[in-house]
Amino acid sequence: MANTAFMQHEKKTYAMHEQDFPFHIKIDRTKRDFDIKSIGHDNFDGQLKHNVSAHPRSDRRSGDLMAFGYKIDL
């Protein structure tokens, strides 16, 4: 379950969790209520090979998203 942090990048909203890929969600808002829709895990067109930190940062100049990641082979 992705519930550690939320972030926005390139007009998409993600729910983040340390042990998984970012989970893309869509939030539809009206004046009275809102709805959260699950889109699915995002590996950024194959750029991610394993899970990443739940607290990525965006470079203010380039707009690039940066996150630490790790893969544990048992």
How is the topology of this model organized?
Elements: E1 5-9, E2 12-16, E3 23-29, E4 34-41, E5 57-58, E6 65-66
Antiparallel strand pairs: 1-2, 2-3, 3-4, 5-6
Care to describe what's here?
With 74 residues, this protein is mainly beta. It has one domain. Helices cover 0% and strands 39% of the residues. It contains no helices and 6 strands. The protein has a 4-stranded antiparallel beta sheet with strand order 1-2-3-4, with no helix packed on it. Strand 1 and strand 2 form a beta hairpin. The model has no long low-confidence stretch (mean pLDDT 87).
What is the gist of this entry?
The protein is an all-beta fold. The chain has strands at 5-9, 12-16, 23-29, 34-41, 57-58, 65-66. It has one domain (5-60).
Strand content: 35-45%
**C-alpha-based Rg, rounded:** 13 Å
Into how many domains do the coordinates divide?
1
Helix content: under 10%
**Gap from first CA to last CA:** 22 Å
Please tell me the overall pLDDT: 87
Class per helix and strand makeup: mainly beta
Shape annotation: globular
Return the string of H and E elements.
EEEEEE
| Count of helical stretches | 0
Q: Write out the strand line-up for the largest beta sheet, numbering strands in chain order.
A: 1-2-3-4
Oligomer type: single chain
Uncertain parts: none
The tally of beta strands, per DSSP, is 6
How does the major sheet shape up?
4 strands, antiparallel
